[in-house]
């Protein structure tokens, strides 16, 4: 479309979640409680890992990094959503929109790589227990963790820079509760085909790589467990890996549905429900999943509470 004679827009309106008016206060309270539990749970997990020497091992270094990514993604999206429950003008500038998307894409991408890294860590721990201290040394663990964050920054920057080629001149209504890239494509006056292709290729590649890493790692883990035929070893392995497998299963489904399917098939309401799941619900569930199913975390928390109480 020719935008020469059109007024370019730099302020957008987020429609937010669609709900009956009488649900406004109950929904606000529900999401506020979820956000508070998410923040306290993830930051508390980081605090435990940092202050308990028994948790200074690779598995918990990655778990602390995952908790940071969860707290980040939740803080990127949920406060804006809470404010918009009671704000008549749900306005956001183009700059703020870009910053919010960058922050979201950074944390989501980082989490994908961290989940893959945690799967590889479990593979080495169970399949090569004698070599585990040598392979997963501090240097490699720090490198893997930092690389996940750097990959998140690079991936999100690529899409933010590519968004700068788009213009917005007709509609400034974003049918979402935060600035995501797909709703921006829908209201662009510039043909976003290249951008959509970039999202499909880059997001698809990252998710396929992460999922394959997880599947291969746990296939080898399962083979090793069954070969040993030790009931105690099976229980320990499933206890260790169960939390991670549950977290991976919950996280990748909505992401694949959102960013790897064809753009024409997208439905706004369904998109928002998927986004709500991996930006609000998953960060809320992860510290619960990893804490309740992890004896060392429970022991560390118990010791800390006893010291303070």
Automatic annotation (TrEMBL):
Sequence ranges assigned to domain G-protein coupled receptors family 1 profile in this UniProt record: 41-290
InterPro entries xref list: GPCR_Rhodpsn, GPCR_Rhodpsn_7TM, Olfact_rcpt
GO cellular component, one term: plasma membrane
Subcellular location: Cell membrane
Molecular functions (GO terms): G protein-coupled receptor activity; odorant binding; olfactory receptor activity
Membrane topology: Multi-pass membrane protein
Transmembrane segments: 25-48, 60-86, 98-120, 140-158, 206-226, 238-260, 275-292
Organism superkingdom: Eukaryota
Sorted UniProt keywords: Cell membrane, G-protein coupled receptor, Membrane, Olfaction, Receptor, Sensory transduction, Transducer, Transmembrane, Transmembrane helix
Role according to the record: Putative odorant or sperm cell receptor.
Family statement: Belongs to the G-protein coupled receptor 1 family.
Protein name, UniProt field: Olfactory receptor
Organism from which the protein derives: Sus scrofa (Pig)
Organism lineage string: Eukaryota, Metazoa, Chordata, Craniata, Vertebrata
